Amino acid sequence: MADAGLVQKTLRVLQTVAASPNGIGLSGVARLTDIPKATCHRILLSLAAEDWVVLNEDTKRFHMSLSVLLMLSPTSDRDTALSYVNRLLETLATQAMETCGLDQAVKGTNTVMVLAQTASPHNIGLGRRAVPRMQPAWSTSTGKVFLSLGDPAAVRQDLESDPQFRDSSRGRDLDGFLEELAVTADRGYASSRDELEPGAASVACPVRVNGTVPYAIWVGGPAYRLTPERVPEIAEQLRHTAQDIERVLARTPPGTQLGPAL
């Protein structure tokens, strides 16, 4: 009987978290379920350990985990998958306190397309720009991610033959740029500073799907706020979000694309 009572309490706690799309704190769960706070705490910790709920360390609110949301509502099409991705980007923007987004490489060009973007919680951040939009790969952190995955000799040849790259500031030091790509490939993330536009900085990491890297996600903001010291921390947040996006895309039908077929 004691076990049955615990199961009922666990279900009530889980239902309360599920009914709170913006998350809910421990005190709120205890109040709404009429279960002692200490008992709710133990139940929530057990649910978190099993990846049923997650705790936002900043807000101290519990949310349903992505695994449970995917189990209850599979990503059967592009629009559903993109809605999950946007939700993950919103969470990332809150964690990093900067603008973030998801990009796709444009095949046959040294260009990336911004497919999704979530604004920074700060009043001062990256300027609002149209989505989707095209950007030169060599000036962006996501572009560097995509370029770093290619054969170095082929990338060199491709960049040498690109007049826009040759005319850019990076084109004046191709060897240095290729060395940066090698570092990016080794550490698993890229960064840019004062490249796409003066005073702007960003960090990006790849999103892997079935052995390929069709997308990359990024966090960007003013260079005075997104300092070099913050880059490793932001890179780690990006890795976790990329893994969640990979889990979302793994549940979509083969061939599903978040952006146009490029």
Explain how this protein is built.
α1 (2-18) packs across α2, α1 packs across α3 (37-49) and α2 packs across α3 (37-49). This protein has two domains: 2-69, Arc Repressor Mutant, subunit A (Orthogonal Bundle), CATH 1.10.10; 75-250, GAF domain (Beta-Lactamase), CATH 3.30.450. The protein is elongated and about 70 Å long. The mean pLDDT is 86. It has 262 residues and is α+β, with helices and mostly antiparallel strands. The chain has helices at residues 2-18, 26-33, 37-49, 66-72, 78-96, 141-148, 152-160, 163-167, 174-187, 231-250, and strands at residues 53-56, 61-64, 99-106, 111-118, 133-136, 190-193, 200-209, 212-222. β6 and β7 (200-209) form a beta hairpin. The longest helix is centred in the C-terminal third of the chain and has 20 residues, at 231-250. The chain contains ten helices and eight strands. Keywords: DNA-binding, Transcription, Transcription regulation. It holds the Pfam family IclR_C. Residues 67-251 form the IclR-ED domain. This is IclR family transcriptional regulator.
